[in-house]
Amino acid sequence: MKPRDDKKIDQVYKATLRLVKAKGLAGITMNEIAKEANIATGTLYIYFKNKKQLINALFMVCRNRSAAVYFKNYVPSMPFKTGLKTIWLNLLNYRVKKFEEAIFIDQCFHSPFITETTKEITRKLFLPLFSLVEAGKKQKLIKNEDTMLLLTFMAGSINETVKHAYYANRKLTKQVIEQMFMMCWDGIKA
Amino acid sequence: MKPRDDKKIDQVYKATLRLVKAKGLAGITMNEIAKEANIATGTLYIYFKNKKQLINALFMVCRNRSAAVYFKNYVPSMPFKTGLKTIWLNLLNYRVKKFEEAIFIDQCFHSPFITETTKEITRKLFLPLFSLVEAGKKQKLIKNEDTMLLLTFMAGSINETVKHAYYANRKLTKQVIEQMFMMCWDGIKA
Amino acid sequence: MKPRDDKKIDQVYKATLRLVKAKGLAGITMNEIAKEANIATGTLYIYFKNKKQLINALFMVCRNRSAAVYFKNYVPSMPFKTGLKTIWLNLLNYRVKKFEEAIFIDQCFHSPFITETTKEITRKLFLPLFSLVEAGKKQKLIKNEDTMLLLTFMAGSINETVKHAYYANRKLTKQVIEQMFMMCWDGIKA
Amino acid sequence: MKPRDDKKIDQVYKATLRLVKAKGLAGITMNEIAKEANIATGTLYIYFKNKKQLINALFMVCRNRSAAVYFKNYVPSMPFKTGLKTIWLNLLNYRVKKFEEAIFIDQCFHSPFITETTKEITRKLFLPLFSLVEAGKKQKLIKNEDTMLLLTFMAGSINETVKHAYYANRKLTKQVIEQMFMMCWDGIKA
DNA sequence: AATGAATGAGTGTTCATTCAT
DNA sequence: GATGAATGAACACTCATTCAT
Known about the structure:
Four copies of one chain form a homotetramer. By secondary structure, chain A is an all-alpha fold. Chain A is 72% helix and 0% strand. The first copy, chain A, is built from ten helices and no strands. The first copy, chain A, has helices spanning 6-23, 30-36, 41-47, 51-70, 80-97, 99-109, 116-123, 127-138, 147-167, 174-188. The longest helix of chain A is centred in the last third of the chain and has 21 residues, at 147-167. Chain A is elongated. Chain C binds chain D through residues 20-21, 23-27, 103, 106-107, 110-113, 143, 145-146, 148-150, 152-161, 163-164, 168, 170, 176, 179-180, 183-184, 186-189, and chain D through 20-21, 23-27, 103, 106-107, 110-113, 143, 145-146, 148-150, 152-161, 163-164, 168, 170, 176, 179-180, 183-184, 186-189. Chain A binds a DNA duplex through residues 1-5, 8, 29-31, 39-46, 50-51.
């Protein structure tokens, strides 16, 4: 018997990400995804009930993967600034190295495919970031603003910068990244 | 393609923005747009050659409108920080008050509808911002980083914050806005 | 403006009946129906929400039409046997002249298309037949059996005979019909 | 196509009959049949070349089985009326006890699956019935009508009555059956 | 100009059939 | 032989676009 091939799921995910980057969520069809993943249309429906479910599943995977990356090398016992920089760098690295995933995630939020449930579930993955920022505030190392405001300030600037660097075909050198972090830090430090 | 009724065009634009906010670019049809705009499907094609052109036209309109807002009350002869804050506030206000337009513009960048030409043309609308930042650098009032880096830093944090405020149903009070600007300014100031 | 064309609905019905007679309910596709009706596939969906609804609508029409035929020239005040024969002949005539409709109705009862609601609604069309049979029983003109049993006895023999005549390519002459009625009558008469 | 396991074939037949009763010929898929028969899809194709062949084979089986039942306890040397009643009762019993088979056979006649050859072959199974009716005519015990007409008269009333009893959830008692036979007999007797 | 019915290529999805294990 | 994953043609249905009125 031919067992179910998990590699296929991965092929489908990769194909979808590639296509969404190239033409946006609005521009992709199940046929294209299958072709790009080198499988038949029907096979797609063995692994995914329908288009909506495929997009939701991939969204979940990307959100999980990104959360995993964010907290790599991060130890809560680190000094605050070291911890923050670790996560900050992870965040930037994820968006640079997994640019397609980042784009996909962004596109999904305003799409008819992602359900509220999926959004809700994946939101919870980022709670440790909240704790960190709150610890920083308690230690009076950063401004005493709303936690979410501080986070969106940082995340927003990273997102936009990575996107711009990508489309302007400009490499983000170590030096530039250091300067970016400094801007972020200067912006939020107490 | 020389239509009489400007009001109809406006209805179409408004309908499109409403629908894109609700379901994303991926989820709208010409029929829906027509219905939402209270006109017949055929009428849509009197005013717009096809869907792509309609999206491009609206994209252009939004980009122009946003540029116009950005530089409201801005006089190049202003002191640097005053000028910067004026534009910064305009930028934020645009994204808050014309939230639908902001969303639409974001979605368009990764869509199969917008042509490179359209993107290119609309990019030029924001050149005065570049000049301002460069002047600031010359006066050593802000960090001597790449101009685009400084701009995306500011724009990114605004975009993300407004989006979050909207979806979390949180009002951006005068006070919060002042604090946000301070974070931005602290981040870029020399 | 082009108004909705009721003639199209009729074309679709006729096409469907022709195809169902030829290949059975199991063998027809929406594309075929459209082609047979000389309209585009999409047009079908202007007039009918989906395949199920189209089949249900046609079922309803056929049942109504058949009921209308059944009671043609029938007046409740007729002598019992005259009334019964009138209806009996109408029933037979309907199944002969609208053979396609009769086949279609039969097929529908065991199909995944017809809803219970539709079956229920159309059942009520034949209530006058019940009254007639019951009157006959009261007058002791026919056997005092269960009304439904008497009716299915008559209807069943008509259905089967017409079907056989059709497929054996045998014409049901006036004479044969008279003899059939006599068999029915002899079967039920008191 | 020379399969070992007769039990599997039987499972397939039973599964098919069950499904056809529930959803009609139009509504069943090979996958469903396999699942209902507790075998794999591929296994179906070891025992049957394709769907058409499976349906044809089952049709043949059902027709044979029904013919066998029809003539149970029937001996040509019986007095005419006894012989007729024997077969008549067998016929009714078959349709009551093997209701699913009866439904299946009915559905098949108007389906794209059954070939003319299959129809032709199975028709011959019922020739003894013709002989019996013809003998009855010769003995002037029944009306001198066309043999087929007499047979369809009887068969039609049985079919319809059984169907109605089934769907109206009404049991056909010994008494009712006796009365039905009497109606039939009164209808055809000389 | 305005309408919305009509079109048919194109979508998502299913399903009879094949095939690798 | 048995399995069920894989296939792709075919299906139900949609939708950008055209056209008759």
